[in-house]
Every structure is written in structure tokens, then in C-alpha cells.
């Protein structure tokens, strides 16, 4: 599950290229993504097709182990537009509940939908239902129960304006920013979760390569026990475009567990 650290970036990129080529030989021509992942870990529903490069049992081990970090790659092929999708009640709750501002309606709602459909996650709290002390720092996007553990989830998108080439430096900056925020929110949250998931939407395979190289070069203290989930969604531009922000609402201190 862990990614072998390579000081030579060219060597690391070559290894991932060979991995892609190996997976391509196994892939069905009907599936749209270059990396097909574990074909036994495949989900098809009326809204999307999803594959994962790890078995559910391996993902469970990664979530359960409080001392371990690692990454999982999923491949998302959208069948319907977001507006016409029949989402679960909790995904709609994320979509419709006021948050701290921003433009991530689709990406956050679909993030939960993936975790719900693939790993039977249960939504515990939306963004503004989590209380922090002191306030004013980084916050997590939602809290779930998955594999009987309470987990915080932070969602972001690996992209540049006009979908320009996403570099290793871009990935490094994104991961460092989000991981620092995860460490801060974990310290300050009055909801004590087991660990956190950083869910990154990637537009193409180049984004995946850049993210994995950057991830491999981060020190353990920064990654801590965070699980990185990368979802490749190269047919889903609406996940990456500026989405209409939800109405900002003052947070109330309630429902603390």
C-alpha cells in the first residue's frame, strides 16, 4: 500500500509508466481509463462507473491502522450530468447544507457518494456541524463512519486554470497545504476522529503521476496517518469548474459527540 520513495524523480516516473503499461494490457477496451485498477473492485450504477486499484480489504486495513499512511487510486467515469444524478440522501445533504463558503458543491457531494457506494460510509457531520477550538483555522469538509471508524474527510481538486499541465511542484504545493490543514483541524476539532482522508480529484493521468511523486517525497510527519485517495475523473469537467458557492451560515455549537 505504501509508495516506495525514490530520490530520482525520473526513475519514479519510469516506474509508474511501466505500471500503467502493465495495467493497460489487462484492461478491458470498454472501460475509459488508462489505469483500470483491480477489476474485481468495480462498481457500476446509474450515475457512474468506478474502479479501485486496491481491494476493499486492503483499504479497510489502511483505514483501521492508526499509525499508517498510504494512497488509493480510483477511476470515475460519469454516466449522467451531476444535475440529473440520483444521489443518496446524505450526498444531497452535503450538497444542500450551507458550508463555510467556496465552490466545491459537486466535488464534495460526489466524494461522499463514492465512499458511500464503494465502502458503505455513513455521514456523521457536514462541514458546519463540526466544532473547533480554537476557531479560525483549517476545517474538514465532512465526517464519516467507515469500517467502524470515525474519519474526517478533506476534499480538493488537482487542477490549473484552463487545465494546463499539472506539475510536480503544483502537486507538492497542494499536498503540503492540505496536509498542514489536516493536522491543524485534527488538533482543534472537538470531534475526535481516528484519522483523516485527503480526497483529491485529478483531471488526468499526469495529475496522478505528479501527485504520487510529490506524495512519495513528503516526510512522515506531514503525511502522518492520512490516507490519500486520488479519483481520476477526466470525463467530468463539471467537478473541476468553478461551482456556485453555497450560502455561508454561522456555525452553532451543538451535537458534539
Question: What can you tell me about this protein's structure?
Answer:
With 257 residues, this protein is α/β, with parallel strands linked by helices. The chain has one domain (30-239). 34% of the residues lie in helices and 21% in strands. The chain contains seven helices and eight strands. The protein has an eight-stranded mixed sheet with strand order 1-2-3-8-7-6-5-4, with helices on both faces. A hairpin with a 2-residue loop joins strand 5 (142-146) and strand 6 (149-158). The radius of gyration is 17 Å and the shape is globular. Residues 1-32 are annotated as: Disordered. Residues 8-17 have a biased composition (Basic residues).
Entry summary:
Helix content is about 35%, strand content about 20%. With about 260 residues, it is an alpha/beta fold. The protein has one domain (about 30-240).
Descriptive keywords:
single chain, 257 residues, alpha/beta, 7 helices, globular, disordered N terminus
Q: Globular, elongated, flat, extended or rod-shaped: what is the shape?
A: globular
β-sheet strand percentage: 15-25%
Strand order in the sheet with the most strands: 1-2-3-8-7-6-5-4
The portion of residues assigned to helices is 25-40%
Mean pLDDT, to the nearest integer, reads: 84
Sheet having the most strands: 8 strands, mixed
What's the number of extended β-strand segments? 8
Number of helical segments with 4 or more residues? 7
- Structural class by SSE content: alpha/beta
Order of helices and strands: HEEHEHHEEEHEHHE
Q: Can you tell me the residue ranges where pLDDT is under 50 for at least 5 consecutive residues?
A: 1-12, 18-36, 249-257
CA-based gyration radius: 17 Å
Q: How far from one another are the termini?
A: 32 Å
Region (Disordered): 1-32
Biased composition (Basic residues): 8-17
